[in-house]
Amino acid sequence: MFFNDHPPAHFHARYGEFEATIEIGTLTVMQGQLPRRALTLVQEWAMMHREELELNWQLCRENARPANIDPLP
Fold first, then answer.
1. Is the pLDDT at 5 greater than 90, yes or no?
2. What is the spatial distance between Cα 38 and Cα 13, in angstroms, rounded to a whole number?
3. pLDDT tens digits for range 9-29
4. Which DSSP category does 2 fall into?
5. Exposed, middle or buried: residue 40 (CB in 10 Å: 0-12, 13-18, 19+)?
6. What is the CA radius of gyration of the chain?
7. Is the pLDDT of residue 41 over 90?
């Protein structure tokens, strides 16, 4: 996430040379692309941490530091 980024609420995911912008509410790719397996893992992680992502989105919009979110086990 980037401080004071544009709506809708989203995060950026990178995998090798790939990058995608993922909407938090729907977990759909807004821009870019990831390989299918990487996208599935990112979406699984985001489903598990949706509330934390939404809170971090609000913190970033307020120029406050977001909290760390655990990776997939």
1. no
2. 9
3. 999 999 999 999 999 999 999
4. -
5. exposed
6. 12
7. yes
Residues 6+ apart with CB under 8 A from 50: 24
Count of alpha carbons within 13 Å of 41, Cβ hemisphere only? Answer: 11
Domain count, the chain: 1
Which residues are CB-contacts of 6 (< 8 A; sequence separation ≥ 6)? Answer: none
Residue 3, in any domain of the structure:
no
Residue-range definition of the domain harbouring residue 46: 10-61
pLDDT for 68 equals 96
Name the token pair of 52: 């934390």
Using DSSP's 3-state secondary structure scheme, residue 20 falls into strand
Tokens of 37: 């397996």
Q: Which amino acid is present at 39? A: L
Give the predicted TM-score (pTM) of the model. Answer: 0.91
